Amino acid sequence: MAENVLYADLNLPEPTRPRILTVPDVQGSGCTYAEVKVKAQDTNAAENCKSSGKSRCSRKHVATLVVVILILVLAVYLIITYGPTAGSQQVSTTNIPEEALGCPPAWKKHGRKCYFFFPQRKPKHWDASRAECTAMESDLVVIDSREELTYLLSQTRYNYYLLGLRYSPEEQKWKWINDVEHDPAMFDINGHHRDYLCTVIGFREVHTAPCDGSSTTQNMCEKAARISKGLQKQS
């Protein structure tokens, strides 16, 4: 019987063992035989490719990590060198000897603080007085110790100077501008506070005063002492 046979030889790569697929002839149907040969791909080459890919991936991760670390180091360096805040500058002077610290002209130095005593006597609201200190990169005086209290009493014997201490009707407490409550053991506050909610120091006492200002009250500011320019040039 005549047969019309068509052979197709396909070589397909596959990462498996070789296989031969044969389709048998159906008698009298004139069918086509197809023989498919699938060749296995070199497994060693595939593993080498994968291994090479992992190596390239690892190198990329390492390079990225190095770049990130360098950026972080550079950022920290720039912050430390060029961007110190006023608070950090004040903290940095705590380990410096007092004799190495100085104050601007017209300011009086005591310990680690600088004080400015305004000569004018004119009614001025407590908020305006504080703003006047802020304009000079300072603030109203906060008494932190008995030593500071003794110094200020000696400097204000003949005038009253405004303090950064006010009475809070809501909390019914005397509080400093740094939100610290006044310690009665430090000193007594003379006078009533029904209408006088601010305080002044002078004539060897701390006394209540009107917050809207008084013709007998002068302003007083304080700030942290800094390293003197002469020592900065030497260092």
Automatic annotation (TrEMBL):
SUPFAM superfamilies: C-type lectin-like (SSF56436). GO terms for cellular component: cell surface; plasma membrane. It is found in: Membrane. PROSITE patterns: C_TYPE_LECTIN_2 (PS50041). Signal peptide: none annotated. Gene3D superfamilies: Mannose-Binding Protein A, subunit A. The chain crosses the membrane at residues 62-80. The keyword Oxidoreductase does not apply. It holds the Pfam family Lectin_C. Keywords: Disulfide bond, Lectin, Membrane, Signal-anchor, Transmembrane, Transmembrane helix. CDD domains: CLECT_NK_receptors_like. GO terms for biological process: regulation of natural killer cell mediated cytotoxicity. InterPro entries: C-type_lectin-like, C-type_lectin-like/link_sf, CTDL_fold, KLR_subfamily_B, NKR-like_CTLD. Coiled coil: none annotated. One of its GO terms (molecular function) is signaling receptor activity. The keyword Iron-sulfur does not apply. Residues 110-212 form the C-type lectin domain. It is a single-pass type II membrane protein. PANTHER family: KILLER CELL LECTIN-LIKE RECEPTOR SUBFAMILY B MEMBER 1. This is C-type lectin domain family 5 member A-like. It comes from Serinus canaria. The gene is LOC103819694.
